[in-house]
Amino acid sequence: MEIRQYISENDSRFMNELFSLIRIPSISAKPEHKADMLACANRWKELLIEAGVQRAEIMPSEGNPLVYAEYIISPELPTILIYAHYDVMPAEPLELWESNPFEPEIRDGRIYARGADDDKGQGFIQAKAFEYLIRHNLLKHNVKFIFEGEEEIGSPSLNAFLKEHRKLLKSDIILVSDTSMLGADLPSLTTGLRGLAYWEIEVTGPNRDLHSGHFGGAVANPLNVLCSMLSQVIDKDGRITIPHFYDDVEEVPAAEREMIAHIPFNETSYKAAIGVDELQGEKGYSTLERNSCRPSFDICGMWGGYTGEGSKTVLPSKAYAKVSCRLVAHQDHAKISQLFINYIQDIAPRSVKVKVTPMHGGQGYVCPIDLPAYKAAEAGFTKAFGKQPLAVRRGGSIPIIADFEEILGVKTILMGFGLESDAIHSPNENFQLDIFRKGIEAVVEFHQAFDTL
Amino acid sequence: MEIRQYISENDSRFMNELFSLIRIPSISAKPEHKADMLACANRWKELLIEAGVQRAEIMPSEGNPLVYAEYIISPELPTILIYAHYDVMPAEPLELWESNPFEPEIRDGRIYARGADDDKGQGFIQAKAFEYLIRHNLLKHNVKFIFEGEEEIGSPSLNAFLKEHRKLLKSDIILVSDTSMLGADLPSLTTGLRGLAYWEIEVTGPNRDLHSGHFGGAVANPLNVLCSMLSQVIDKDGRITIPHFYDDVEEVPAAEREMIAHIPFNETSYKAAIGVDELQGEKGYSTLERNSCRPSFDICGMWGGYTGEGSKTVLPSKAYAKVSCRLVAHQDHAKISQLFINYIQDIAPRSVKVKVTPMHGGQGYVCPIDLPAYKAAEAGFTKAFGKQPLAVRRGGSIPIIADFEEILGVKTILMGFGLESDAIHSPNENFQLDIFRKGIEAVVEFHQAFDTL
Fold first, then answer.
1. Which of A134, B21, B304, B398 gives B319 a disulfide partner, CB atoms 3.0 to 4.6 angstroms apart?
2. Beta pairing class for A79-85 and A142-148
3. Buried (b) or exposed (e) across B192-226, using 16+ Cβ within 10 A?
4. Which residues have a Cβ under 8 Å from the Cβ of B272 and sit 6 or more positions away?
5. Neighbours of A40 (CB within 10 A)
6. In this complex, is the C-beta atom of B297 within 8 Å of any C-beta atom belonging to chain A?
7. CB atoms within 10 A of CB B71
8. pLDDT at residue number B320
């Protein structure tokens, strides 16, 4: 049976299976969802067995368990290791969702739910492409699956897991569907990812909340201090001021900037899609460069003082922020993390106590476009989408991709099917059904092209 | 009966009566406490009747009702109008209280509860001093009481109420117990108060929370922008940068600075009491000047983005702050409010939308120390505390004091009995029992000295 017919005939079963995964709120950031993590891993194990793997098992790690599965034709044949993650981001703010984030709903040709795209939907594409190949006796190489449950919190246990199971995970190429394309009509493959460093900052002023009338003006206010410190991290040209921050940043080569300038990109539509009148970023770089090849600094969350209704005149005792830097290839996240901590401690006034806690981090990644597996992915996209995909660097981070290279010594092909409008990590995350179907087709074609290249 | 004996013999009744007021959580900032406001007003009405007023009534306003009571000996005699407020601040953060904020507990000679000092405890001092005078036939002038229920939210309805009831509230002097003394052994009368302007700021960036990897560096982050704007409000010398902000600020006269320099003040103890290593404020001014005679700018609350457990890499759609300025005499709060709004709109980048909402505001106040009523207050303190009180300006705001002057044409005597250690507006607010008792004595003496001066 042709792949398109197979997808069409199995449509309702596919939806039921995917929905059963989505309904499990596997939010790795929240300890109260511990039981959901195991439930979701088990559901993946069942689905992989039904898809046709020879064996599948839940493997413990220091944190949430991983799902491992394999189909080994012969140890002589090349092996593709497919990675996905079964955990999802928190769904807050819940009031902005139009339907329950954990009860998937199909509206206007899209599945709406937390994880519909990232990464349950995309992981499911891999499982169903594999199922098709197995059921039609078309698989000519070995396939291994590894699905983890901590990607959204920075994969704290994966590093040790990879080291412990190097042999089990032995492979020739890793395939990951967890990235986006430039557009529904603009297929693309991701050849670069940004790294990440993340910190939580706690500023302590007085030992209790003070009356701002009695103390205001004479005692340092932790919120004032935190605003002042964080505002110093970026200068008026949008450059990060942390000393030595740019030391290892490779300037984008002129040829690549030329290529980026030719990517069809409509700034007006981009602004309209996110509802802003003007874009803002580092001086001297275009928007596409700023969000993919250049580092950034964002305050992801901040809180302190009175945040309820009405007005309370208080000089708060504490102020907090969660902040992160996106890093580019060659910037080491551990080194950057320390530079940031030193910098903040350096600019902190003696009138407050400042604690900076490094949270998760990961290195950037670059994939050479002359790899045979890359060519196979290109062929898969071309078949499914009817045009050759562009090779682009993206701004997101999948810190483990660099770990795969370092620990397993294997390159990764980033064959992702997301769209900007999928709103991953945001309320009303969704996944376009036609892209979902083309994705399965593209992966099927990738496996077949892989055998010939 | 002597006043000290009267206080001693009625001690347990006084506590029961005061506790019955405190147990009503009359939090004006929270709409869900609407019913508690009326309950508390009614309880005050009952207590004033029991204390001996000729009539007492609940009077409606545009917001929470007011309690009015009077004892008129003769229209020919001078009239003292006693003001207090029956509303309290929110008690959050609740986890920092050692006992229930609305179930008063006596520990180590202090009453612990929200409102124990501010302003139920202090208002109660006035009621009990009046009761003593009536029961011993010692009152020689008219007394009126007006207790409001919106002081902690800026008295939004009092202005109109004063205008409507000018005749009813006709008086020669107003007496308010809602301020603090320099110390338990350092009695003082407040002769100046700072004004207040308060705003809420909402910064909107993209129309939804964005993935900080895909958009970070290319799209303005509302939290970054808000930090940057707020950090610009104060310069490195601790001066407020809003154009024309200092236009109407009177420099503290040299003679007054000299007096302030002689107020016993131990900076080491002050820092130890609030747990900071170093103080911080406007260059060129002392701590006591900074917190009383100079304006200040504080971020009272701030929030936005992901504030839960773990790390979420998000570029938030919204960022919020509640900010306030303490103002000094001659600075008009409405003018300052507009200057701030203009300034923030002026420095806001076009990459975000900024909305600044003025919340409550009030003018500063100065009381001349040669007023006969001020002299009477001085005499009352001297009798009760055994030493002459110092005349000091304080940093807090009671915006209505300026309204009394403007609308009723009457000066106010600020005869407050709080201490810094009372932790008003903070967790574990408390009121020292010996000060409470001396307060009643001081007010009794004030009334008697008033008749002779």
1. B304
2. parallel
3. bbbbbbbbbbbbbbbebbbbbbbbbbbbbbbbbbb
4. none
5. 30
6. yes
7. 21
8. 98
Give the domains, in start order, of chain A with CATH numbers.
Answer: 3-193+364-452 (3.40.630.10), 195-257+293-362 (3.30.70.360)
Contact partners, residue B34, CB within 8 Å, separation at least 6? none
Segment (H or E) for A324: strand A318-327
Alpha-carbon distance of B44 to A308, in angstroms, equals: 28
- Using only the alpha carbons of chain A, give its radius of gyration: 23
Structure tokens at B108: 């180590």
How many residues does the structure list for chain B? 453
Burial of A405 per CB tally in 10 Å (0-12, 13-18, 19+): middle
Return the pLDDT at A11: 97
- B382's enclosing H/E stretch is helix B372-385
* Token duo for residue A365: 């990644």
User: In the prediction, which pLDDT does A413 show?
Assistant: 97
Three-point CA angle B232, B233, B238, nearest 5°: 100
Q: How far apart are CA A80 and CA A49, in angstroms?
A: 18
Sign of CA dihedral A337, A342, A346, A349: positive
More confident residue, B309 or B438: B438
Query: Which residue, B2, B11, B61, B53, is CA-closest to B437?
Result: B11
Give the pair of three-digit tokens for residue B421: 């250690």
Q: Quick count: other Cβ atoms within 10 Å of Cβ B98?
A: 11
Dump pLDDT digits (tens) for B399-414.
789 899 989 999 999 9
A386 φ/ψ angles, rounded to the nearest 5 degrees: 80, 5
Nearest-CA distance A290 → chain B (Å): 5
| Mean pLDDT over the full length of chain A | 95
Which residues, in sequence order, are bridge partners of residue A393?
A192
Q: Which amino acid is at B178?
A: D
pLDDT single digits (tens) A413-440: 999 999 989 999 999 999 999 999 999 9
| Alpha-carbon distance values, B337 to A379, A428, B299 (Å) | 63, 38, 15
Instruction: Determine contact, residues A130/A51, Cβ cutoff 8 Å.
Output: yes
DSSP at B320? E
Q: Supply the mean pLDDT for chain B.
A: 95
Cβ of A95 under 8 Å from any chain B Cβ? no
Confirm or reject contact between B359 and chain A (CB < 8 A).
Answer: yes
| Secondary structure element (H or E) that encloses residue B59, with its range | strand B55-59
Q: Using CA coordinates, name the residue in chain B closest to A305.
A: B301
Please answer whether residues A69 and A53 qualify as being in contact, where contact means their C-beta atoms are separated by less than 8 angstroms: yes
B324 touching A, CB under 8 A? yes
Burial (0-12, 13-18, 19+ Cβ within 10 Å), A265: middle
Q: With contact defined as beta carbons under 8 Å apart, do B240 and B295 qualify?
A: yes
Alpha carbons within 13 A on the beta-carbon side of A261: 8
Position B230 scores a pLDDT of 98
Residue with the two structure tokens 């206010």: A221
Is B213 in contact with A194 (Cβ distance < 8 A)? yes
| Cα gap A44→A25, rounded to integer Å | 14
Please state the pTM of the whole predicted model: 0.74
By the 8 A CB rule, do B223 and B306 touch? no
The chain B residue lying nearest A89, using CA atoms, is: B312
Residue B355 host element (H or E): strand B353-362
Q: What does each C-alpha distance from B393 to B271, B287, B329, B378, B390 come to in angstroms?
A: 20, 13, 10, 15, 10
List chain A residues with CB under 8 Å of B208. Answer: 96, 274-275, 423, 426-428
Q: B382 at the A interface (CB within 8 A)?
A: no
Residues A167-214 pLDDT 10s: 999 999 999 999 999 899 999 999 889 999 999 999 999 999 999 998
**What would the mean pLDDT of A351-373 be, rounded to a whole number?**
91
- Partner-chain residue, chosen from B230, B282, B319, that has the shortest CB–CB distance to A217: B282
